[in-house]
Design goal:
This protein has 1 helix and 6 strands; from the N terminus they run ββββαββ. Helices cover 14% and strands 36% of the residues. By secondary structure, the protein is mostly beta strands. The protein has one domain: YggU-like (Conserved Hypothetical Protein Mth637, Chain: A, 2-Layer Sandwich). The longest helix has 14 residues.
């Protein structure tokens, strides 16, 4: 799968963000990216902050363990999740190889 990769214990996700949605949710794949819908508007970093909190909850880590690597002002983002504690059911997502 092209939308995620493991970097040691960290998981890198390539995401496509849809702000101002009706609810926060994973919405399948958008090309080679994981589509995520968020209720927050794309102003003053609100959508980015909500994205980090949403992913932290979904992967069982504190939002401080989720960081935005690229795409701060763009819908196309790369996010690093430091040592995720659980993996949500997403298309093709697999645990890292030992």
């Amino acid at each position: 799968m092209g939308w995620f990769r493991w970097d040691g214990d960290d998981l890198l996700l390539d995401c496509h963000l849809q702000p101002k949605a009706s609810k926060d949710e994973f919405a399948g794949l958008h090309g080679e990216r994981l589509k995520i819908r968020l209720t927050a508007p794309p102003v003053e970093g609100k959508a980015n902050a909500q994205l980090l909190a949403f992913l932290g909850k979904a992967f069982g880590v504190a939002k401080s363990q989720v960081s935005l690597e690229s795409g701060e002002l763009n819908r196309q983002k790369r996010v690093r999740i430091h040592a995720p504690q659980r993996l949500p059911e997403l298309p093709g997502l697999t645990a890292r190889s030992p």
